Each structure stands twice: as C-alpha cells, then as structure tokens.
From TrEMBL, chains A, B:
InterPro entries assigned to the protein according to its UniProt record, in alphabetical order: Homeodomain-like_sf, HTH-type_TetR-like_transc_reg, HTH_TetR, KstR2_TetR_C, Tet_transcr_reg_TetR-rel_C_sf
Official protein name in the record: TetR/AcrR family transcriptional regulator
Lineage: Bacteria, Bacillati, Actinomycetota, Actinomycetes, Kitasatosporales
Residues making up the signal peptide according to the UniProt record: none
Gene3D superfamilies named among the record's database cross-references: Tetracycline Repressor, domain 2
Keyword set includes Zinc: no
UniProt cross-references to SUPFAM superfamilies, sorted A to Z: Homeodomain-like (SSF46689), Tetracyclin repressor-like, C-terminal domain (SSF48498)
Record keywords, A-Z: DNA-binding
Domain annotation HTH tetR-type: ranges: 15-75
DNA-binding residue intervals: 38-57
Keyword DNA-binding belongs to the record: yes
DNA sequence: GTCTATACATGGATAGAC
DNA sequence: GTCTATCCATGTATAGAC
C-alpha cells in the first residue's frame, strides 16, 4: 500500500516501464543511498535488465534527478496550499506543519531520497532543485511573518524559526518507520501543536491551548 | 581552526598517522558520503598512500566505525552533563539543547558522518552504536519527565516530544554552514528558547519569557 | 611503517541481436 | 523496447620491497 501511493505519485506522463524504474530507484536509493545503489539493482527491482534503464533515462544521475524534482514539487505544493488557504496565520501554519510532517512520515522512502541525496546531483540539476527549495522556505516564512504582523505570533528571529520548523519536519524522513508506534496523522498533529507553542504570542487568544490536548 | 577542534577530538590514544586518517575520513565522508569516498581519497588527504590506511584500520568500514563511536560518545557526554547538572528541569533542558545544537553546528562535519552514515556500518558495529543512541534518548527523556512531574512542563506526549527535540538538534548537521549568518552559539540560544516554549506549562513562572529575548 | 605495484571484484554504460 | 554480452574505468585490499 506504500507501494501504491509511491507509484501513484509519478503520474501517467511516462511509459509504464519508466514508472517502474522510478519506484525501484526510490526504494533502492532510500535503502542503500545513491552511490551504494547499482543500476543492476534498480533494473532488477523493476524486472528488467540493466541496459533497459538507459532507454528511459540518460544516466543513473538523471533518474535521481527526476525523483528529486517530482518530490520537491510535491513538497512545495503542500506548503503552498497551506500558505494560500483561508484563515488566520496560526491556522495556516498548523495546516502547513501538519501536512508537511505527515508527508515526510507517510512518504519517508521518497522523502529520504529527496532530502538526503541532493549532493549526488549534477551541477545544473542541483541548481534547479535549489530553486524549488527556496520557494518552500519563502512560503513558510511568509506565514510566520503574517502572524507576527497581526500580533498573533511573538517570534524574535523569523528566518531562524522558519528554518527550525522546516528542519523539524524534514528530519522526520530520517527516523520515521512505518513499524513505529505513531501514525503519520498522529505525528502531524503532534508537530503542529509543538510548532504552535513555539510561535504563539504569550497573551494570545489560544496561547498554550494545544499543550494538553 | 575547525581542523584543530576536529583533530583534538580524537585524543592522543592512537599514533599520529591514525589521527590524520580519522580527520581525513571525517572530511571526506562528510563531503561525499561514505560510499562515494574512496580509500585513495582518504589516504591522499592524510598525505599517505592508499596502502597505509590498512596498517591502522582493518577496513574502510572500520575507520567509519571509529569515527562514529567517538562522535556518539561525545554526543552522549554532552547530554549526560546537562542531565546531571544542578537546577530545575527547565534549566537543565535549556543547557542540554543549547549544547547539543551547538555541537551539531560547530562540528557539523563530524556530526554529519555520525548522524547520516549509520547505514554503512556492519551489523555488529551498528548494534554498538545503537546502544549509545538509546542512552542519549533516555537521558533527554528523563529531563522532560522530571519537568512534567514537577509541574514545570506541560507535555502531553513525552516520548514524542523528546524525539522531536533530539531530531531538531540533529538536523542542524544537515543544513548548518560555517558561512551562514548564525554562529553555533547563537543557534544554541535560539533552539534552547524554541524548545523551552514547546514544553513550558502555560501558567509557569517564566512561560513565554524567551519569546522576545 | 610506508611505499609501489597489482590482484581481483564491481559497476556504469554501450553494442548489436531480436 | 528489451535482451545478452561486454568494454572499460574505478575501487578495495594485498604482496613484497625498502
């Protein structure tokens, strides 16, 4: 069922064989890391010979790039949806954190590749990905700035706090295991509460409301 | 000066050549990852031939393990010192977070290897490292439990919150750059404040005090 | 303890048949 | 579009001289 979700994420743009290679690549890269993964392994998981990989992707690095780009676009979409949604900054921030943390938990396999294999990208591919990452940072910082302007949040260091919030969610991909005791939904809820307390103005209307559920 | 600190961390137990290989290994593994690093590269950075590495370490994996063990022992020492220090839970937690985040920033090169190359360890070496990591988790959770018992903290999910706090600090190693605008000290201060707000009881004596510096 | 030289395995990528 | 076979570079680790 994890497989189904991961597969669905690649859409219907590519031929089916390319999709199989993408999911195989995600699994292999997440398990062993990009450099330790062989093209033979990827092709094998997709039920193909090593040579078949090169019909659909120019190089092994190109396969990584496609995975990374789709993943980053998805991540940006999640934050953008929350940022552009209705409601006060506190509600929008909670939505963003809930969904972003949840995504990193539910798709920790993809997220691991997306977040930890950037260094393996070629120079041009890397630049394209960095642009997407800047978007994500800017969108989240915007929500926090809104909350500070409205007096809803009290945050001394907005860029630092935005960085910490993203960092907290991203690191979920490192440690989350489907076998663990927490579901992605529960984790999203926990994290939204923790972040809410991090930014809430002391006298605010619901300061501390999330502390004891 | 980063080099001096990294070197100093390896103590004076080993012959000097082994120390050079350890620092070279840290730098290389942090830059390119364990699997993408060649023994030629490590030996070259240490000013030696590839063969010299095998005089001091049984395999490349053994070199990684030594780095990982020293790093984890250092990390545990930092958390243990804070946990066993004097003062209320809030003070001890702030000390732990300040020092732990600061260490991951200042020694982000070492920390990157310590935190992100675990999967490259052999089975027995991995088990030894996992034991150290469990210690770290237990020590931090203990501080939070103390604060909850004393009514100083209000935390609904103690294990989840402890995990989030460690996760936040660990991820510093991923993004921190010495070229960035924040110093390790400033980062430790910021993070201690953020975590303080995450756990503080709403009516507590200094609830929100850290919000505006 | 360090070197040069090298054995031996593995892996990315391609050629050419089907 | 996929396969089998293979080229060629690279990488870990060792042998043996100094």
């Amino acid at each position: 069922m994890q497989d189904v979700q991961e597969t669905a994420a690649w859409g219907d743009v590519e031929p089916e064989a390319a999709q199989r290679l993408l999911t195989a690549g995600v699994e292999a890269f997440a398990e062993r890391g990009y450099h330790a993964t062989t093209t033979r392994d990827i092709a094998g998981r997709a039920g193909m010979s090593p040579a078949a990989l090169y019909i659909h992707f120019r190089t092994k690095e190109d396969l990584l790039f496609r995975i990374s780009r789709v993943g980053h676009e998805r991540a940006r979409g999640i934050i953008a949806a929350a940022a552009e949604s209705e409601g006060a900054a506190g509600e929008r921030l909670a939505r963003a954190v809930r969904a972003f943390a949840r995504w990193h938990a539910e798709h920790h396999t993809t997220a691991r590749v997306v977040q930890y294999e950037l260094a393996a990208l070629g120079e041009e591919h890397y630049a394209e990905i960095v642009a997407l990452r800047r978007d994500i940072d800017r969108l989240l910082r915007g929500i926090i700035e809104d909350g500070v302007r409205d007096g809803e949040f009290a945050v001394a260091d907005v860029p630092g706090t935005a960085l910490a919030v993203l960092s907290l969610c991203v690191d979920v991909a490192r440690w989350f295991s489907a076998a663990g005791s927490r579901s992605p939904d529960e984790l999203g809820e926990l994290y939204a509460g923790l972040v809410g307390r991090m930014v809430a103005a002391p006298g605010g209307r619901d300061a501390g409301s999330s502390s004891q559920k």
